[in-house]
Amino acid sequence: MNPLSTIENSKVILSALDWGFGHTTRLIVIIKSLLEKNNKVHFAGTKEQIEFFENEFEGITYHNLKGYRITLNDKKKTYWQLYFQKNKALKLIAEEEYYLKQLHEKEKFDYVVSDNRYGFRLKTIPSFVICHQLNLQVPFAKKIANSIHNNLLSKFTACLVPDHQDQRLTGELSTSSLKIPVHYIGPLCRFEKLDEEIEYDYTFIVSGPEPARTNFINSIKRWIKENPEKKIAVIGTSLVGTENCKSFIKLRTDELNRIISKSEEVVSRAGYTSIMELYTLKKKSTLIPTKGQFEQEYLASFIKTDFLSFKNETEFF
Fold this sequence. Notes:
Strand order of the largest sheet: 3-2-1-4-5-6-7
Oligomer: single chain
Strand content: 15-25%
CATH architecture of the largest domain: 3-Layer(aba) Sandwich
Radius of gyration: 19 Å
Order of helices and strands: EHHEHEHHEEHEEEHEEHEHEHEH
């Protein structure tokens, strides 16, 4: 059961990790459900996250909150990049905990919903964390990494896993040893299946932290130049001077939904939000894990379907 489905006529504040944009976009399903039940919804996040939701919803109250700003270069060792940024992350976790406590004194919230922001919680009211990585698949020091991670998650009231309890998309990633209640709430997908005439051979969706994001864009640029006969849509960046390519930087969910429906195939990073959406739509897709990003590499090795395929960049580009 999803405990958020029982919330009505209440004041709820949400926030999401700003590593890529998947944590943000998958909150659309949650926010829609809360608004339908006459809840007053607040969102705390970065300028980019707030601008996104302003384009999606009316009637939400916004609060500016500093992002984690984790960087990831897929040309360097990911494990050590994350290790050397841990102090920055821990500092921001402490800051966001203090920030929310001060904001709560003013606003008097009834519930907190955090998508992977570990300090965004309150001890005095129900605080839920959305997370599908309860068993980190890291190359070494796995026990220590999971102990630290589980300690952060266990400070919440409950953990909500966006996956099925049986036949999981996340495999061992969502195997829990948490001491708090864990609820499997099903995959979150903001799209619906549309019957549209095919217009694009490929739609590329750009996402992820910098500088890996820019590396991905550069690979897409080269591929488009080498395949001038293909009709292409690119989401998330502007590519000018290419006749066979249309670029879209900021799209509402309904607009992106139509472009995906008009595409023969989607190419994107193998983030879990993208997987949930494309899996639900049953859309033919090629998913390219960010090199060294352990979650994406694990999912690429685990998920097997007739319409989702996983390739590394050298295999595709």
